[in-house]
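Design review, sub-item: ligand-bound model
Attendees: FS, YL, KQ
YL presented the inputs for the S-adenosylmethionine complex:
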Amino acid sequence: MMTTTQVKENLNLFRCPLCGGKMRMVAERSIVCVKNHCFDLAKRGYVNLHTNPVKTEYDKEMLKSRSIIIRSGLYEPLTDKLAGLILDHACGPHTEVTRILDAGCGEGSHLARVIQSMKGRSDRRVSGVGIDISKEGIRIASKEYPGITWCVADLARVPFKDDSFDVVLNILSPANYTEFKRLLAGDGILIKVVPGSEYLIELREFLYRSTGKEKYSNERVIAHFEENFNTAGTWDIMYSLPVDKHNLEHLIRMTPLSWGAAEKNITEALKKGIDSITVDLTVILGKETRGRGS
Ligand SMILES: C[S@@+](CC[C@H](N)C(=O)[O-])C[C@H]1O[C@@H](n2cnc3c(N)ncnc32)[C@H](O)[C@@H]1O
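KQ shared the predicted structure:
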């Protein structure tokens, strides 16, 4: 059965990714713009608005592993923190519904967990939208979390109208600040999550031994954020959790760190095992103070 409810409920947010025109639903099967650019709804209710399909390394295997690791609770302190920040900074007394866009949502678990955590603490209404360029990611998201609107879309050409969101989340994904500014309502907030230097360090040390890539710095990414948004707060979140053999395999598969690693290093990591893994993330909260398009 086709599930159109979520897209239908949020239809007023959409704009055509090709011409920017208004969109309407046709026969509960497609959304069509004023110039007749037509995008079909998938059986699971997501819509593919990416007009220039690309082959991405974020494939089904990787995103399934990501889903297993996120569901194991590895990122729970992060999603609880994000939920708290949204409740504190984007849920004023005049906000009837808090509209959240997760740009680069992957397989959707972070957004689903943030919303769940918000609902556990407040009775505010929340509307969630997730976009990702990976069709596989959006397929998993729409199967697992049908209460959220999911779209295959490029974050450099987001198919939503100006001022549509109170919060843009951007977790471990590329950013497009011009688009984020356009999409945020006047007092909206951008929350970006970037890895810290100790993020998955035990894995990094195994996979990049003697390559000069054992260390990572997020300075450049944070500087780019600050060129575009006024930073209202920065939080470092760091903790370690145990890893069993089964999860280690998924941990290796879920991270782009494994893309550049030698196969023998991956095999060795799996053979020797890792007792615990460090999660080190920086959360930056930005508010727009400069003109659009800067
Ligand atoms: C490391 S993953 C993070 C996914 C998710 N936020 C998470 O933390 O599990 C990076 C994500 O960015 C997405 N991505 C990369 N370029 C993109 C683009 N131009 N538009 C939309 N998504 C993009 C990838 O498909 C991938 O799902």
